[in-house]
Amino acid sequence: MTQTTSSIHPFVLWSKIRLDEMDAAIREAEKEVSKAEENIKAGVAANLAQAKQSRDAFKARIQSNVQYGKAKAEASIQSAKRELQQRWQEFEKAMNVAGARLNNSRKEFEARAAAQLKSCQDMVHEYNELAVEMAVEQKESTHAAIIRMQEGVENAKQVLADVRQASSESAEAYRGALQKSREAIEEAYDSSKTAFAKV
Q: Is pTM, for the whole model, over 0.85?
């Protein structure tokens, strides 16, 4: 892994978690739309179309930036992250409206939480594989970094579990929990970045 690739990892994680959540939220809403009354379907269809458009633009920007980022690295990544954050907010807005119309906040939360945790566990697995390839003197620092990442995933699981236990949480509470778990995971990965910078 080169220095450029190492600097891309937090961006890839940040993007992958959000893209997986987007896909899970859209799939869940599409299931609910098929059960909805006709007068609700039309409005939700427009919101889902907007959400899909935001997701597709998000995905296209990730792909182009990873290619460009290999050459230009950190400045390009920060610029892309700002643009992707805007796409993310557009997606969230469209899904908030669709979710309110479908009254499926709990199901969407569960689908997004599962997608978020799977993305994180995949990244921990990837970092574990990288650590195996590292020189002996680097193994201690990478092992500590992987433990920090796993702790971040566990913190995220706890945030999500706390919200699951509450029987009547609002859509806002679900979204807040997803955001807190995302932040816990990102913080853990960011803190472990230096251990993998020389891989």
A: no
Cβ-proximal residues to 119 (8 Å cutoff; 6+ apart), any chain: 13, 16, 17, 20
pLDDT at 53: 92
Residue-level pLDDT at 52:
92
DSSP secondary structure code for residue 166 in this structure: S
pLDDT score recorded for residue 1: 39
- pLDDT < 50: residue spans in the chain: 1-8, 199
The CB density around residue 120, as the number of other CB atoms within 10 Å, is 28
Distance from C-alpha of 116 to C-alpha of 57, rounded to nearest angstrom: 20
Total domain count, the chain:
1
Residue 154's domain comprises: 3-196
Contacts 24+ apart (CB under 8 A), 185-188: 185/13, 185/17, 185/116, 185/120, 185/152, 185/153, 185/155, 185/156, 186/10, 186/13, 186/14, 186/17, 186/152, 187/152, 188/148, 188/149, 188/150, 188/151, 188/152, 188/153, 188/155
Where do runs of H (alpha helix) occur along the chain? 3-33, 38-72, 74-102, 105-133, 136-165, 171-196
Q: What are phi and psi of 73, to 5 degrees?
A: 60, -130
Over the stretch 158-178, which tens digit does the pLDDT of each residue have? 877 877 776 566 778 888 888
